[in-house]
Amino acid sequence: MSAAEKEDVDTFHNLYDILESLCIEHDGSKKDHPMQWEALADFTEEFEDAIELYEKALELAKSQREFDYQASILFSMARVWVELEKSDAARDAAQGALEAASKAQDEELMTEIKQWLEEYRFYS
């Protein structure tokens, strides 16, 4: 994050490559975790590629019944879908995020998602 904020492109790409290698190395193992894939997606510059990584993270979070990660991943996906001008997918992802946040009993995230849904007129 620090490299991205400082616009240090070389360091950003080096750290991204390390994170990507870590995700690939852990893929399918006991060390595989949705947070790794979500972080990789968060820093992926191409939106379509980010969606694919979020989907991988979501699949893993669902298999582990990690509702907090499901909520976070789906909410991130919703924001990317908006950037891709896919409002139906954005709304569906955000509503899924709201449901998962409810199961995780994360009131703060639920409030944030509801505000986002209202801002984009997906929720009233």
Keywords:
mainly alpha, about 120 residues, Serine Threonine Protein Phosphatase 5, Tetratricopeptide repeat, 7 helices
Draw up the topology in text.
Blueprint: H1 2-5, H2 9-26, H3 34-42, H4 47-63, H5 67-83, H6 87-104, H7 107-119
Helix pairs in contact: 2-3, 3-4, 4-5, 5-6, 6-7
CATH architecture: Alpha Horseshoe
Give the proportion of residues in helices: over 70%
CATH superfamily: Tetratricopeptide repeat domain
Largest sheet descriptor: none
Shape: globular
Spans of at least 5 consecutive residues with low confidence: none
CATH fold naming = Serine Threonine Protein Phosphatase 5, Tetratricopeptide repeat
CATH class: Mainly Alpha
What does it look like?
The chain is mostly helical and 124 residues long. It has a single domain, classed as Tetratricopeptide repeat domain (Serine Threonine Protein Phosphatase 5, Tetratricopeptide repeat), CATH 1.25.40. It is 77% helix and 0% strand. It is built from 7 helices and no strands. The protein has helices at residues 2-5, 9-26, 34-42, 47-63, 67-83, 87-104, 107-119. The longest helix is centred in the first third of the chain and has 18 residues, at 9-26. It starts with a helix and ends in a 5-residue tail after the last helix. The model has no long low-confidence stretch (mean pLDDT 94).
In short:
This protein is 77% helix and 0% strand. It is mainly α and 124 residues long.
